[in-house]
Each structure stands twice: as C-alpha cells, then as structure tokens.
Specification:
Layout (H helix, E strand, L loop, with lengths): L2 E11 L1 H16 L6 E7 L3 E4 L5 H4 L2 H6 L3 E4 L7 E3 L2 E9 L9 H18 L4 E4 L4 H8 L14 E4 L2 E11 L2 E9 L4 H5 L7 H14 L3 H4 L6 H16 L1 E5 L4 H15 L2 H4 L3
Parallel strand pairs: 1-2, 1-11, 3-4
Antiparallel strand pairs: 2-6, 3-5, 6-10, 7-8, 8-9, 9-10
Pathway: Protein modification; protein lipoylation via endogenous pathway; protein N(6)-(lipoyl)lysine from octanoyl-[acyl-carrier-protein]
Protein name: Octanoyltransferase LipM
Function: Catalyzes the transfer of endogenously produced octanoic acid from octanoyl-acyl-carrier-protein onto the lipoyl domain of GcvH, an intermediate carrier during protein lipoylation.
C-alpha cells in the first residue's frame, strides 16, 4: 500500500494567502491534524516574492513593482527574488522525521525534488540534478552575487540541457519541512530584471546575459507548448512516482480557510513583515 498524502490545488490566490497557507499547513502538520501535503498554486496578481533574509529596500526596485501592478511578499523561506507569473508553484509539507526524509537538508531537498524531476520527464524533457563539482561552484552557492533566484543552480537544482528550470527554497520549523518553488512555463526577462536594483546599467545587462545562459523555461525547451493544466497533471503524477505516494485531493474546511485568511492579514500583508530588513 502506498502512503496517502493530501493534494491541494488552491488555484491562483493573493501573495499573502499563498504564503499564509504554506505556513498554516506546516502548523497543522506539526500538530498532527493533516498528513504530509503536496500543494499546487498560482498568483493573482503576478507577484515578486523575496527570501526571508533579503533586504527589500536595498535590493528591490519597489517603484517598478508598483508600476507593473505586481504583488509583493516576503517568503518564510530563504533564497532570492522570484517573479511568479507564468509558472506552476508547488509546496511540499512533510515531517523531518518522516521515514523517506534524510536528516541532511540537501539530501532531503533531493528526495523531495525527485517529484519535480519525474514531472519534467513526464513532459518529455531530459531533466537532471546539477551537483556543484568545483570549489568555485560551491563557493558561489555560499555567496550568491545576484538578488535573483534563477541566477545560479544550487545543490541538487534541476536542470534541462544544463540550464536551471525550477527554483526551490526550504525552511524547517516545529519538526516540519516546508519546501516550495517555481516551475517556469514562460518568463518575461525584461520584466524580471526591471525589479531589482543594480549599481549601473552595465551590471544589469551583464546579469541578463548571464541569466539567459543559466536559466530556461519549460516552453523554451519543450517540443510543443505546455499548458498549465498539462503541467499540473505531469507534476502531480511526478510527485506520486518520485516519492512513491498516492495523492488524495483535499479541500480546506471553512475553519481552516478563515485561519489562513487571518494569518495572511496579520503577517503577509503587513509592511512590518515585508519590509522588515
């Protein structure tokens, strides 16, 4: 018998609701109220999310964020800035002590990401894990030069044809792992690069050029266009295969939804949280 995990497809929601639901699921799982969960979601409006440790005022061009009508939110996870637009966003909630989860953060990351790896393969893409080989590559992971998440493959990042196709981040609280990330279908690079601050225009252009070499979207490498519905189906199946589980659809109760909405309002819509660094 395969272990049953919950599957939540919460559709496109506000940035604050999205982050609050991930945090609430971590809480519920730590209290034993729900089993492990895989969740798919989207963003309305398209949103720039920043990592827990990023300095918003220093690194982000908030004027551009507002001008483009984008949402803005700080994640509870680390990592760098991500533009959530034409993508499938996923999150996984599972106990650190789960028999499938290795104790090491990077190894647990690899196990969870097996689901994504199988998703890409279901779409006919030749995806693999990139593992930094040289000391220089390892150093660049510790000291990222850019505010933008897709700029450098990190440990066990997923790559297709040598370029990064999914960016993920992880946090561990209350004995529970929350890993969430972006699976890019398409990307407007001009829009993305207008959202960060640079010392000058030349640096910005150099970063854009290097980004094009390092990152790629599903629809750039797929032989035929992939819709969001096709991506959902491929990655849902991918998680079941990769983690050896059965995903059971689950809808939030009214009480759970109210709890998430309160957390969204109290924390993730609060400037004190979003601009705290």
């Amino acid at each position: 018998m395969k272990e049953k995990w919950y599957f939540i497809d919460s559709g496109a929601s506000s940035p604050s609701f999205n982050m609050a639901l991930d945090e609430a699921m971590l809480e519920w799982h730590s209290e034993g109220k729900i089993p492990p969960v895989v969740r798919f979601y989207g963003w309305n409006p398209a949103t720039l999310s920043i990592g827990y440790f990023q300095k918003a005022e220093k690194e982000i061009n908030m004027e551009a964020v507002r001008r483009l009508g984008l949402g803005f939110v700080r994640r509870p996870t680390g990592g760098r800035g991500v533009l959530h637009d034409n993508e499938l966003t996923y999150s996984v909630i599972v106990s650190e002590g789960h028999p499938k989860m290795p104790a090491s953060v990077t190894e647990a990351y690899r196990v969870i990401s097996e689901g994504i790896l199988h998703g890409f393969r279901n779409l006919g893409l030749d995806a693999n894990f990139s593992i930094p080989k040289t000391e220089e590559e390892k150093d660049s992971l510790k000291n990222p030069r850019s505010s933008n998440c897709f700029d450098a493959p990190s440990w066990y990042e997923l790559v297709v044809e040598g370029r990064k196709v999914a960016g993920s981040a992880q946090t561990r609280q209350k004995g529970v792992i929350l890993q969430h990330g972006s699976i890019l279908l398409d990307l407007d690079e001009e829009k993305l690069f207008s959202l960060f601050r640079y010392p000058n225009e030349r640096v910005k252009e150099r970063m854009m050029a290097s980004f094009k070499k390092k990152a790629v979207t599903i629809n750039e490498v797929s032989k035929k266009p992939v819709s969001l519905a096709e991506a959902k189906s491929a990655f849902k199946n991918g998680f079941e295969t990769g983690l050896g589980i059965e995903l059971v659809p689950y809808d939030l109760s009214e009480e759970q939804r109210l709890q998430v909405e309160k957390l969204a309002l109290d924390v993730y819509e609060n400037d004190e949280w979003n601009f705290r660094r």
